[in-house]
From TrEMBL:
Signal peptide: none annotated. Keywords: Hydrolase, Transferase, Zymogen. Pfam families: G_glu_transpept. One of its GO terms (molecular function) is transferase activity. This is Gamma-glutamyltransferase. InterPro entries: GGT_bact (IPR051792), GGT_ssub_C (IPR043137), Ntn_hydrolases_N (IPR029055). It comes from Candidatus Scalindua japonica. The keyword Transferase applies. SUPFAM superfamilies: N-terminal nucleophile aminohydrolases (Ntn hydrolases) (SSF56235). Belongs to the gamma-glutamyltransferase family.
Length: 538
């Protein structure tokens, strides 16, 4: 039964009492492709595309737009999108850097992070519409109108509010009520929509419909741009017409790569955080499989040390590819780095965002790993009443103090990103398409799934308990599903323990596709959120 949160619920809500929420399919198998996303309605739309013969990019773009509808607190038109794409015909691996941009009117040195955490000044110039349109045009086979049609229908007809969405809205209720997103995302502008209620978004549907007809440029140069400008002026926001007019088209870059065991890894280059993933894999390769087993106390201790060290090094060695070509991009990927840090960690062992992800593979062998976000849950908490989408709060993802820092806040700068959409190859074919939301926890989440795949089924590897170690040595973990001596070991080595829920929203949400030895695609959607996996049946 659906939980009752309001004893004075109206008749409409009482009628929902006997309905059951859809239970998303978390595991799927198909020989003809696969899609796994963080919301089952987005999976369904992308599945329809694959089933009708569309390619991986067609399905990925469809799912990405759909996630902006049914996971609005995590991503949407007001955010940014990064992806890794494998073209089976040319065998090219392409990283699409879809960074958003700081507005031109920001004055360096005159703001601090707390001032730009929420509100209209918290938003960078959204890049998601430009990135998805570019990817579809250059690597898809469908038109924008084809892709957006079913997404518009989803926004108009609505979807059921899940327990997770209710909980997140309740958690952020104060900030929502204090900002312009309240009328759009709260019932009567005051309360969370109850679990199981149908949430429709007419204004967002209208925005999507306009883009389908007028093209994505309308978002940056046309009527939508004018409405964004008017909304910003009315609320003293920074983004203006000239910011939007410099459309943030994505930059095609070479993915970062390394080898691990019998796989070749391709992951997101800066400003993404794929180099953290590369560094973790290289350090872990210095240890035996038994030593790096995350389900043992010493394996968990090793993992905590590796996570902390690599994130510290990323913090110390920032790279912004548009401005800092002279810096050695490969430092954290070099063998000497891994060997030096492995020795350091071995001594220790002897001694004392919100974001969404989707993965797609098609029958032709193409693959997409895509991560997109509006930064924190509900982004800036601001939205135009006429357009229906949330503005991001990526202005909080800049450096505010060190003027020499590559990500120092300045006009037209790109923010830090922690995304790591990744594809592992065995031989010449993709073996694992994977990614996760979770800010700085993304790389470590992927690592833990990978380490478990040798011993566990794909679903078990994704569902297994996780941990994360902060820069200051706080280990967050799903302790109730782990051996209790793991917590004891970490505490005895000086780590602060932060016990999280058994299936914690905080510790990532993996959407994964694995190719089996029989050539089948196994899709897995993380049980921590509302996702599902589904593959064509031809």
């Amino acid at each position: 039964m659906i939980p009752v949160y309001n004893k004075n619920a109206d008749t409409e809500l009482l009628e929902l009492g006997n309905r059951r929420l859809t239970k998303p399919q978390k595991v799927s198998v198909s020989k003809y492709g696969m899609v796994s996303t963080a919301h089952y309605r987005a999976t369904e739309l992308a599945f329809d595309v694959l089933n009708a013969g569309g390619n991986a990019m067609d399905a990925a773009v469809t799912a990405a737009f759909a996630l902006g509808v049914c996971e609005p607190a995590a991503s949407g038109l007001g955010g940014q999108t990064m992806m890794l794409f494998y073209d089976a015909q040319s065998r090219k691996k392409i990283a699409l850097d879809g960074s958003s941009r700081a507005p031109h009117r920001i004055v360096p040195g005159e703001s601090n992070k707390s001032e730009l955490l929420r509100g209209y000044n918290a938003s960078t110039v959204p890049s998601t519409p430009a990135v998805l349109a570019y990817a579809l045009k250059n690597y898809g086979s469908l038109t924008l109108k084809d892709v957006l049609g079913p997404v518009v229908d989803l926004a108009k007809k609505g979807y059921e509010i899940s327990q997770l969405q209710y909980d997140l809205t309740k958690r952020e209720l104060k900030h929502l009520r204090n900002n312009t997103a309240a009328p759009l995302f709260l019932k009567k502008g005051k309360h969370p929509y109850p679990v199981g209620s149908l949430f429709k978004q007419e204004k967002l549907a209208g925005t999507l419909e306009r883009m389908a007809t007028a093209g994505i440029e309308d978002f940056y140069l046309g009527d939508i741009a004018q409405m964004i400008k008017a909304d910003m002026i009315a609320n003293d926001g920074l983004i203006q017409a000239d910011d939007l007019a410099q459309i943030p088209w994505p930059v095609e870059r070479r993915p970062l790569t390394t080898s691990f065991e019998n796989t070749r890894v391709f992951t997101m280059c800066p400003p993404g955080a794929g180099r953290v993933l590369i560094a973790m894999l290289n350090i872990l390769s210095q240890f035996s499989p038994k030593q790096r087993d995350p389900d043992t106390p010493r394996g968990a201790l090793l993992l905590a040390n590796v996570i902390r060290q690599t994130n510290l090094d990323r913090q110390d060695r920032p790279i912004e590819p548009n401005l800092y070509h002279q810096i050695d991009n490969e430092h954290m990927g070099r063998p000497e780095y891994a060997q030096r840090n492995a020795k350091k960690i071995k001594k220790k062992l002897k001694g004392k965002g919100e974001t969404t992800h989707l993965s797609v593979v098609d029958r032709y062998g193409n693959a997409v790993s895509l991560t997109q976000s509006i930064e924190r849950v509900y982004g800036s908490f601001c939205a135009s009443a006429e357009l229906g989408f949330l503005y991001n709060n990526y202005m909080s993802a800049f450096e505010y103090n060190d003027i020499t820092h590559p990500y120092y806040l300045r006009p037209n700068a790109v923010p830090w990103a922690s995304v790591s959409p990744t594809i592992f190859f065995r031989g010449r074919k993709p073996w694992l398409v994977i990614g996760s939301p979770g800010s700085e926890r993304i790389a470590s989440t992927i690592i833990q799934v990978l380490l478990r795949l040798d011993k566990h089924s794909p679903y078990e590897a994704v569902a297994a308990p996780r941990l994360f170690c902060s820069l200051k040595g706080k280990v967050s973990l799903e302790a109730s599903r782990m051996r209790d001596d793991i917590t004891d070991m970490l505490a005895s080595k000086g780590f602060e323990i932060d016990v999280r829920d058994p299936y914690s929203f905080y510790l990532g949400c993996v959407q994964m596709i694995m190719r089996s030895r029989r050539g089948e695609y196994i899709g897995v959607a993380d049980p921590r959120r509302d996702g599902s996996a589904k593959g064509p049946r031809l």
